[in-house]
């Protein structure tokens, strides 16, 4: 059972998401909140046994926005997974969201089935970025990489990544799951997991989410 809270200031949207999630017996909805402060207060006051596993978080909200709320929630309980569920697709906001501790960045026009899939992914330690956003970010970074030798930025070689690890890191940054990577590269899931473990160790990060952020912000892909 995955325990969830929903943070969304628009009541109609909030009620619609809750209604859509109710048929999924593996999901338990602990509460709904209209701003980030209420969500932070809930996490602060909730005993561990009733702590949410996942927070579905809007970004543009009154009182306390989703990005700041994510930072505060992660500071209280780092293990909580945060899925940004928003209509904002600007690159800078995506970076800010992940830097705040988000584990996924999804658009509000996704289906409930896809949302369930994303919840499962983040619970398995994976990162997910809406494909249209990931493609845009990677396109921008590819153009920036043309001149990165003149910018004094970190090079992939600084981390001693192999060519295969660089390839897999790029796919992680694009939001692909281990299974998707295995299918794309025609290698076993076991092999992908080993590469991901090696990448995390070489980058000195804690998980796939941090690896993806480092890859994007430091232009490693």
Widest beta sheet: strand line-up: 2-1-3-4-5-6
Major β-sheet annotation: 6 strands, parallel
Which oligomerization state do the chains in this entry correspond to?
single chain
The number of helical runs is 10
Estimated helix fraction: 40-55%
End-to-end C-alpha gap: 36 Å
Based on secondary structure, the structural category is: alpha/beta
Radius of gyration: 18 Å
| Poorly predicted runs of 5 or more residues | 144-154
Helix and strand sequence:
EHEHEHEHEHEHHHHH
* Count of DSSP strands: 6
Shape: globular
Strand share of the residues? 5-15%
| Mean pLDDT over the full residue set | 85
Give a verbal description of the structure.
This protein is α/β, with parallel strands linked by helices and 221 residues long. Helices cover 51% and strands 13% of the residues. The protein is built from ten helices and six strands, in the order E-H-E-H-E-H-E-H-E-H-E-H-H-H-H-H. It has helices spanning 11-21, 36-45, 66-76, 91-99, 112-123, 131-145, 163-173, 178-185, 189-203, 208-217, and strands at residues 2-7, 27-33, 54-57, 81-86, 104-107, 128-129. Strands 2-1-3-4-5-6 form a six-stranded parallel sheet, with helices on both faces. Strand 3 (54-57), helix 3 and strand 4 form a beta-alpha-beta unit. Helix 7 (163-173) crosses helix 10, helix 8 (178-185) packs across helix 9 and helix 9 crosses helix 10. The protein is globular, with a radius of gyration of 18 Å. The model is unreliable at 144-154 (pLDDT under 50).
